[in-house]
Amino acid sequence: MSYDRAITVFSPDGHLFQVEYAMEAVKRGSSVVGVRGSSCCVLAVEKRAIAKLQDPRTIRKIASVDENVTLGFAGLTADARVLIDKARMECQSYRLTCEDAPSIEYVARYIARTQQRYTQRGGVRPFGISTMMAGFSGGKPQLYLTDPAGTYSSWKANAIGGRNDKSMREFLEKSYEPDMDESACVKLAVRALLEVVDSGAKNMEICVVKGKEGSLGGSVSSTMKEEDIEVVVKEVEAEAEAAKQAEGGGDE
């Protein structure tokens, strides 16, 4: 039997191959790095090269799902568009029903539930994306991740997508420090992306999510300009060069 063709049939060793193929689609996508600080969350996305005549504004890897939830994704853009639209509809339905904004955990749980539902019946296929969501809950920054299997989890920092996601994750594990401020979070996200991005700021998109004044659950997201990212990239590269020279001088 072709276990890799049927979405609802387990292989003899307990695998759902279609779900694993969806995770491979995520690895072929652009890299996404998320960092949670003391008062903000930072989402940094690798921007792939686009055609010379294409409008870059139409290729966005970071989207707003609700007033309090900003989402970055790795994987198939078309799948992401459908899933984001479903999440936006759920957020609006929640506001109409409960007369309150949904929490970031609620949105993460809904997206994960939707992704899992597409792994258990025929006639559909899993969503080929992983998402990373940033927002605020109880006045504190939150960072959530979902994958094609339909699991969701909260993180201090993580990286998804791209062939080097494992090395970026290991870098974050070594470099992450608790209670980092906004500039430290941005710098750490840039340093992690530079593991896979060669051309610096041109191929990066960075969004900073900060809490809204006077609100325990609200947040405000802002996308950094390319020239501001370039300043951080040069600063990171200068620090790396200085560290390399210091090591070289110590060897002598």
TrEMBL record:
Pfam families, sorted: Proteasome (PF00227), Proteasome_A_N (PF10584)
Protein's recorded name: Proteasome subunit alpha type
The keyword Amino-acid biosynthesis is assigned to this record: no
GO biological process, one term: ubiquitin-dependent protein catabolic process
UniProt xrefs under SMART domains: Proteasome_A_N
Subunit structure: The 26S proteasome consists of a 20S proteasome core and two 19S regulatory subunits.
Domain of life: Eukaryota
Keyword Glycoprotein: no
